[in-house]
Each structure stands twice: as C-alpha cells, then as structure tokens.
C-alpha cells in the first residue's frame, strides 16, 4: 500500500506545495530515530555528533516578519539541539515541484542572525528536486549568519536506501512514486519524448496562438513573448501564455505538468505576495469563486505565497473530440471570458 501517496491524494486538492509539506512531516518523524538523525547530519552536514540532546524538531514554524520583510517566514523544518556545550539550529526549506518563494532564503538568513549572534552553530539547508544554484551573497545580504547547504532529493533517497526498515521502505516507495529517486539515465520512453518534443511543442503553441491570442489581447492586453513559455516550463512545470497586468497579478492559460498521467489544461489568475492591492484582489477572487463554484482557489489565506484561482481540466477530457486543438482553444476562450467578468467588476484593482 502506497501509504504516503494515498495521504497526499486525500489532502492535495488546491495545494500546490502539498508534496513539500507531506515530505517534511515524513522526515521530521524519521529524525525522531536518533541513529537516523545522527547519520543524516554526519553524511550531509558534516556534523560529527555523538550524543545530541535537548533535540527540538518543529515543522512549519512561523517567524514573524522583521521590519525589512514583506511577509512572515515559515521554514519547512526547524531543528535545535545541543552537543556538549555547543548549540545548533538548522532551517530546512524543501522543494519538490514548487520554486523558492519571494526572498524566502534571504528572510530565513535574517531570522537566523539572533541565533548566530547568541553563539549557535547555524545551518540553512535548501533541498530541491532539480539543480537550483543560489548566490550566497544575495542570501546573506546583511552578512553571513549560517552555513548554507544545498542538497538534492536523489542524494537523500540514495542515503535512505542504505538504512532500510519497515518504515523507511514506505518512505522509499513514496519518494520513488513522486520521482525523487532519479536514475539519472535516459530510458526508452525518454528518447521517444525527445524525438517528439518539437511536434508536441508545436501543437501546444497551436492551442495557445491564433484565436486564443486574439481573445487574450482583447480582454487582458498582449501576452508576453513566446520564449516566456519555455521559462515557465523550466521553472514552473507549465507551458503557459501569460499576460502581466503590471499590478502584481497575471492572467494565463496553458498546460500544467503534474504527477498525474495526463497534464492539466488550465486558465489561471494569480496575485503576488507583494502586490500592494493583494487584500482587494483576494477579496475579488473569493467573490468570484462564490459565483463560479467550478473554479478553484489556492493559497488564498497564505500571504507569503503566490495565490490565485484556476479552472483545470485534464487533457484526457479533450481526447474524444475530433479536433483536439480547436476544442482546447474553445475552452481557453470560454474561461478567459469568465475571468473578464471579474475584471469588469473590479476595475479599481489596476488592470492593463
């Protein structure tokens, strides 16, 4: 039984960061086993522990925003402990599909400063699925407050495989199911996908251009250039046409790649955590959801995240149509028109 993935399936609706949250809880529980805790810190952080004590492990702990911050901060995992007369504190930020939040690591570095000044040995650990190199000069903009460590999930997976037991076997199974075991080898299906990449991209472009481009331009002004779709695919696992509204919000439509068998075909309206009219935008989104229950909201109560509303439909639902591209275009146009009603009813939000 794929326990952790079953739990995720029950909780994930509308939560783009649920994999990170669930994985964090799994690892927090794993670290309650002293031999795993000691082994992990020795293997990845080069901390030679013998008898750690006063160990405190907290997930999703909130640190109130400092004067120079726009939002509160909530590291995925905060661990404090002592070894002899040495004091340690570790901040973990875990990413699977999502990207780093706005100034997220910089804020964590600022919150570590009081501990650093108080004599703690401090670590800021950033765990990602893909390579995501960071500039420590940007993270520690106010001076170095911790040792910064970047880890990849496949390395953690390989380490866990050497410490198997009945519980860890389920952790391993979960990590494999969400692709964190990364074989780092091209499989036959990968070769086929590469060979078909150009054709598939052309088909997605056909869905997003033409009548859809005309409608988006008419309702929300001109979209960003074609190259932005590739940036979206690289950074956000989505192939989107987006029009930036120049007020900390954007409207977009396209294809969202998920862990499911079929990608989602989506129309989306999103607001930045730093938007100066965020409160009003969220209010408008909630009112829209009340009148359009088939749409879904996400992270509307979390001011530290990009939040929004979307209408998602599995690509599978279009496959019975005679012309897939035309039917997807009709879907995009219909949902963009529905979003335009929101715009017309809330012109003071500042649209293009």
Structure explained in plain terms:
- It is a single chain.
- This protein has 352 residues and is of the alpha+beta class.
- The chain has two domains: 3-177, no CATH class; 188-349.
- Helix content is 43%, strand content 20%.
- It is built from twelve helices and ten strands.
- It has helices spanning 3-11, 18-30, 34-45, 104-117, 136-139, 153-161, 166-177, 188-208, 211-220, 227-236, 278-291, 324-345; strands spanning 53-59, 77-83, 86-94, 121-128, 147-152, 238-244, 249-256, 264-271, 296-298, 307-314.
- A five-stranded mixed sheet has the order 1-2-3-4-5, with helices on both faces. Strands 6-7-8-10-9 form a five-stranded antiparallel sheet, with helices on both faces.
- The radius of gyration is 22 Å and the shape is globular.
- The protein starts with a helix and ends in a 7-residue tail after the last helix.
Indicate the topology.
Layout: H1 3-11, H2 18-30, H3 34-45, E1 53-59, E2 77-83, E3 86-94, H4 104-117, E4 121-128, H5 136-139, E5 147-152, H6 153-161, H7 166-177, H8 188-208, H9 211-220, H10 227-236, E6 238-244, E7 249-256, E8 264-271, H11 278-291, E9 296-298, E10 307-314, H12 324-345
Helix pairs in contact: 1-2, 8-12, 9-12
